[in-house]
Amino acid sequence: MKQKKVVQQFKYSLVAGLVIMGLGACQSAHDQERDHELSDAVAAKQAQAERQQQNVMRKERKEMRAAHEAEMIVVTGSRVSRADANLAPQKVMMPAPRNPASYSDVNREQYQEIEPSDVHSTLEQPVSTFSIDVDTGSYSNVRRMLNDGYLPPSDAVRLEEFVNYFNYDYPNPDSEEMPFSVSTEAMKAPWNDSAHLVQIGIKGYEEKPVDLPPSNLVFLVDVSGSMQSDDKLGLVKKALKMLAKGSRAEDKISLVVYAGASGVVLEPTAANNRVKIEQALDSLTAGGSTNGGAGIELAYKMAEQAFIKGGINRVILATDGDFNVGTVSRDHLIDMVERKRKTGISFSALGFGTGNYNEHLMEQLADKGNGNYGYIDNLLEAKKLLVDQRAGTLMTIAKDVKIQVEFNPAVVAEYRLLGYQNRMLEREDFNNDKVDAGEIGAGHTVTALYEIVLQDSDGKRMEPLRYSDNHPQDGKAMAKNLEEAAMISLRYKLPDQDKSTLYRDYLTAAQVNAAKGGDNIRFAASVASFAELLRGGKFLSDWSWDDAKRLAQQSKGDDANGYRGELIQLVGMAQVLDEQSATGSR
């Protein structure tokens, strides 16, 4: 019995041992399986990371390749192909759109630094020389900022573009042989009782729209990722459709786009084929980096292909100016535009959008390309530039226009030119026909304002020189005519000429002293003071926002389109923002 009990215990122990061994084996297999699973997960993550890295590298190589290929694109007949004639023409594909939110995080807008206007002693420097300017982009760009609820940086405010945004009631020239009229007016400076304001007004000859020569227009549209928003590419499409609708059967329109690469979307097409033109514009989407240099080169090639002898040949760039790949050197781009203008193809720039707007480059390209620069912040501005002022925007009636004013030191003690700081020329440049200057479009008005202080005034800002031989009383002996306050000279070339013509007029002392100023000069003064206030008001003494607004209201005159009324509203908006800023700083 005892032996039987021992045998049973042995069996139980054996079974228990076998069970334990089985359980251990199962646990080991489970552990091994779990280890394999962990190892597989780590390997999968590593493989995924490697694939992502490879994708990034492929994307970078693709962008570098696209940038390189953009430099090689040429126009061949009706297609776009690589420079290598052995390669078949390939369709240009735009990169995938990028998230527009990534462009609004940082404000990278660029403006040229503008120094305050200088006060000059007439005895030391009696001659003032500058190039005219009919650009208006600064005003509409600043309007955008004020409407968005913030004051502009001072360098964004160019006084002459504020003043020239508005038309003035200057006399019309008699014929295109004398392409513009010149008139002068004077008044007491509103912000300084001891000074006078002198206005030089120019009105360009304007033909009827049906009399405009045929036009060859190349729309050069930036479709890079930074343009992906309604106020950029969306507004570009609407604006260019407006311009196309005003064209005729004899006019030609082409469409070139650029991002990482450039391509022709629309061959030169009769402008009355609006369905085809609008379909081409509607097809545009944004995405990729910005190779503006390659786009400009291709646009000029299209303009050369459809060149109209004796017609209007112009490239019109529409962009936010954010060139970030390819030819990005400002000097290189300007040099390209300068060289091409000699072929009879002008260059205009239309700015759009916010955040990374490169206004400095846009303005310089248009100036050097014998074109004009405008900023379009809404459809009304597009209508103003491209419909209402179509002739002035497209047709140049006088080029290389320079103004030189010589003040009589016997009458004028000091003077200051309001604005035009980046248009100043050397005295000897006036008679040099090789020096580039500004252009006047059909029907354009151009206004220049001088603040002057007469010799008998107590308002001089500069102390007389103690050791100078040229005392004011000696200036009378030097003056040919004591009745003259200044001699105003203009040089200009007709569009098809390389030799300039001289125009000369005189401003009398009696005109300066007697004139009370009409609506033209009074409204121009209100606009100028608004710009000066936005820049800090260095020369305005205690002149205020309310003063600028009141003067604009009193001199508004005929305001059929409401532009002058809008200015008054903008002055009020700037005043509120300025007061909020002052309160916040305290």
How would you describe what is shown here?
The protein has about 575 residues and is an alpha+beta fold. The protein has 15 helices and 18 strands. The chain has helices at about 1-70, 135-145, 160-165, 230-245, 275-280, 290-305, 330-340, 360-370, 380-390, 390-395, 470-480, 510-515, 520-535, 545-555, 565-585; strands at about 75, 80, 120, 125-130, 180-190, 195-205, 215-220, 250-260, 260-270, 310-320, 345-350, 375, 395-405, 410-420, 440, 445-455, 485-495, 500-510. It has a 6-stranded mixed sheet with strand order 9-8-7-10-11-12, sandwiched between helices. A 5-stranded antiparallel sheet has the order 3-14-16-6-5. Strands 4, 13, 15, 17 and 18 form a 5-stranded antiparallel sheet that branches. Helix 7 (about 330-340) links the parallel strand 10 (about 310-320) and strand 11. Helix 4 (about 230-245) packs antiparallel against helix 5 and helix 13 (about 520-535) runs antiparallel to helix 14. The longest helix is centred in the N-terminal third of the chain and has 71 residues, at about 1-70. This is VWA domain-containing protein.
Question: What would you say about this model in short?
Answer:
With 586 residues, the chain is α+β, with helices and mostly antiparallel strands. It has 15 helices and 18 strands. The longest helix has 71 residues.
Structural class: alpha+beta
Overall geometric form: globular
Radius of gyration from the alpha-carbon trace, in angstroms = 34 Å
Mean pLDDT: 82
Uncertain runs are 58-106, 473-477
Give the biggest sheet.
6 strands, mixed
Notable characteristics:
single chain; 6-stranded mixed sheet; vWFA_dom_sf; 586 residues; 5-stranded antiparallel sheet; alpha+beta
